[in-house]
Design a protein that fits this description.
single chain; alpha/beta; Rossmann fold; seven-stranded parallel sheet; two-stranded parallel ribbon; 10 helices
């Protein structure tokens, strides 16, 4: 078995840390290097971490070219209002993407390149569930970010590399910062009363296994990764015993302001999902990409997490002589 050098960009994210922890057990990888602006969120035993800010392209390229990886996993994508606001997320994602492309032009012999993308690239509304052959017509900021990322990386990737674009449904997990997940945890969920559209999500562990599969024997091209059995927002509200608040089409901006005050900012790609749904199927016949959890099971796990309990200041106790 030939030994390979693995590079994980975005190792500090929950998905990056989880996928890297799984990949550390693969004997094919003799060395593992992780790059991110934040350290990994779990203990990694064989991975060397290097902190590189998204606005330091020279440092980024220097580390990547010096390491000369055989396999690159690019998870350096900031979803708007997951950890950064929309503008900051767009800038950070674009900076890392451009730095990666500059590095790829100096790498020869790269065997695999895995890139995180999302179903948002297909836009909304969709008449039918999108498969990998559907046209890319993004209609949200996040969709445009991901489409540009795919185009840039595809153009810069060496011909020697198998390039896999993983188009994820919203990734939901106990420690995953997700604007959709935060919204669904609110006591009141906004809905479009005229829409019966359905959507899918994917569990964080299923998403991590998809990354591992792509890094070891994934297919060349795009792959949709989404849990089966789509649900509607009304289904989710009933499952979580939430109150629904009907929102008419021209008042979503006001609704977004209110959810932001409640701790759940509402970016435009989440509004699209609430109004039009977002479903996809995969034409890639690869068992490694099949999520084990249905959408309903992922939502059930979402509502099983403990709620935040606010503890007031402790009262001073009387001293007894």
């Amino acid at each position: 078995m030939s030994q390979q050098r693995l590079l994980v960009i975005g190792v500090g994210s929950e998905l990056g840390s989880l996928a890297t922890a799984l990949l550390e057990h693969d004997a094919r990888f003799s060395d593992v290097l992780g790059i991110d602006v934040h350290p990994p969120r779990r203990r990694l035993r064989r991975t060397t971490f290097v902190r590189v800010e998204h606005d330091d392209p020279i440092g980024f390229v220097r580390h990547v070219v010096a390491y000369r990886p055989d396999v690159v996993i690019h998870l350096g994508v900031w979803e708007p209002h997951a950890r950064l606001g929309t503008n900051d997320a767009r800038v950070a994602t674009g900076n890392y993407a451009r730095a990666l492309c500059n590095a790829l032009e100096q790498l020869d012999g790269l065997s695999r390149l895995v890139v995180r993308s999302g179903l948002e690239v297909y836009g909304a509304p969709l008449r039918n569930p999108a498969d990998e052959s559907a046209p890319l017509i993004p209609t949200s900021t996040y969709g445009h970010m991901l489409t540009e990322l795919e185009t840039m990386v595809r153009d810069a990737a060496p011909r020697t590399a198998t390039v896999t674009m993983l188009r994820f449904a919203p990734v939901i997990g106990a420690h995953v910062p997700s604007p959709l997940g935060r919204l669904l945890r609110l006591p009141v969920i906004p809905i479009d009363p005229f829409s019966k559209a359905s959507f899918q999500v994917v569990a964080d562990d299923d998403a991590a296994r998809a990354v591992v599969n792509a890094a070891t024997h994934g297919a060349h091209g795009a792959v949709n990764v989404a849990a089966h059995e789509p649900v509607t927002i009304a289904d989710v509200a009933r499952q979580g015993r939430r109150i629904v608040a009907p929102v008419v089409p021209h008042t979503w901006r006001v609704t977004a302001s209110l959810t932001t005050l409640a701790g759940a900012p509402l970016p435009d790609h989440v509004v699209e999902l609430l109004r039009h749904g977002r479903t996809a199927v995969s034409n890639v016949r690869d068992i490694g990409y099949q999520p084990t959890h249905s959408t309903g099971e992922v939502i059930e796990r979402l509502y099983s997490w403990p709620s935040i309990v606010r503890v007031g200041p402790r009262q001073p106790t009387e001293q007894v002589a």
